[in-house]
Write a structure and sequence with these properties.
The structure holds two protein chains of two kinds. In chain A, about 60% of the residues lie in helices and about 0% in strands. Chain A is mostly helical. In chain A, helix 1 (about 5-15) packs across helix 2. Chain B is globular and about 45 Å long. Classes of the chains: A mainly alpha, B alpha/beta. At the A-B interface, helix 1, helix 5 and helix 6 of A face loops of B.
Chain lengths: ~70, ~280
């Protein structure tokens, strides 16, 4: 299963520089309006890539978000 | 009568720096050896003077995002752009320095789409999708500094579940071959991706490949065992990290019953690399 809201947000973080910079500066604030479960929100705020992947986040997005991608 | 005048499949991150960073000097050397082979294959391809090149590859969540993900999609229009990514990292750096715009073969693309509808293939069409490394890294390695003939980019959804089945991909390749045969054009067909890497698309398993599976697949290609390729299940492809073989299976459908000639096979660990040609 891929989780739509998690992946839409990951996609925006890759493609939208403005959102990415806001997220880097203050993750909780940047995600205030995002439709996420508590678990998903926590994984984003902690930038826990493995957890985001377990929650359905696309590997290719997790690997390629500028300045935030994992290996 | 048109014909397929060249057919080959190959890995698609032909970018030494990526492997240097993620695998080390051994990875760099292996991909440099592969690049040398692909350039040699490019000389054969160029000598066939194709009127068009169908490139079968996947989208790495760059074009289709999650608004709608087609199982298979044909790029239409007159030209296509290279994907532009701010501050690219990882495999997106393979696009650095490549030309911005490439010609498309709109007439062949339309025939694949329209005759597809008649034949039961309701492919999606894209007028705006840009091309990422899956298309452009092999193309620009094959053609070097020379301009390529017009392209027909053909996307297969390899990564967003549920992907199309291997059998459906094979049949789509048969369809492409029939369209080409009924056309006036000489066409090259290139498939890209793989071999095994990123099993289960799990971040925890990045760095693993499945050499035993890859050896089996290469054996099937060499032996012309197309039933084995068609019979691969979505589960097998996912567990071994062979998602991108779906692109290759489209090509196998297009060239069957031809047997492959393996030009390069390398077991790297993070990903196994290959370049394969079919006599057509």
């Amino acid at each position: 299963m891929s989780r739509y809201d998690v992946n839409v947000l990951l996609y925006r973080l890759k493609k939208d520089r403005e959102l990415r910079e806001k997220f880097k500066a203050d993750p909780s604030k940047a995600l205030a309006d995002a439709d996420l479960t508590d678990d998903e929100r926590e994984a984003f705020v902690r930038w826990d890539l493995r957890r985001l992947n377990e929650l359905g986040g696309s590997l290719h997005l997790l690997l390629s978000i500028p300045g935030l991608g994992g290996h | 009568m048109g014909q397929i005048v060249y057919a080959a499949a190959m890995s698609h991150v032909l970018h030494p720096e990526y492997y240097e960073t993620n695998v080390g000097p051994r990875g760099r050397r292996m991909v440099e050896d592969l690049i040398a082979v692909v350039r040699e294959m490019g000389r054969d391809l160029i000598a066939r003077h194709p009127d068009a090149i169908v490139i079968v590859a996947d989208d790495h969540l760059n074009v289709f995002s999650f608004d709608a993900v087609p199982a298979m999609c044909v790029r239409v229009g007159r030209t296509v752009r290279r994907m532009v990514q701010d501050d690219p990292i990882e495999f997106d750096r393979a696009l650095d320095g490549l030309p911005d715009r490439y010609p498309l073969h709109e007439d062949l693309a339309q025939r694949i789409l329209e005759q597809g509808m008649e034949a039961g293939f309701d492919f999606a069409a894209s007028w705006s999708g840009a091309l990422d490394h899956a298309f452009l890294s092999p193309l620009t390695t094959l053609y070097g500094d020379q301009p390529s003939p017009p392209l027909v980019p053909f996307w297969v959804n390899c990564f967003v579940p549920p992907p199309p089945t291997a059998r459906r991909c094979f049949d789509a390749g048969r369809h492409i071959a029939r369209v080409v045969a009924a056309s006036p054009w000489n066409v090259a067909v290139i498939a890209t991706g793989g071999l095994s890497h990123f099993p289960e698309l799990s971040l925890a398993r990045v760095g693993e490949s499945d050499p035993a599976f890859d050896r089996r697949v290469v054996g099937w290609l060499e032996g012309g065992d197309h039933e084995a390729m068609r019979g691969l299940t979505t589960k097998e492809l996912h567990e071994t990290g062979s998602h991108e073989l779906l692109n290759w299976i489209v090509l196998v459908g297009a060239v069957a019953p031809a047997r492959a000639r393996v030009r390069f096979f390398g077991e790297m660990g993070r990903v196994d690399l290959a370049a394969v040609e079919w006599p057509v």
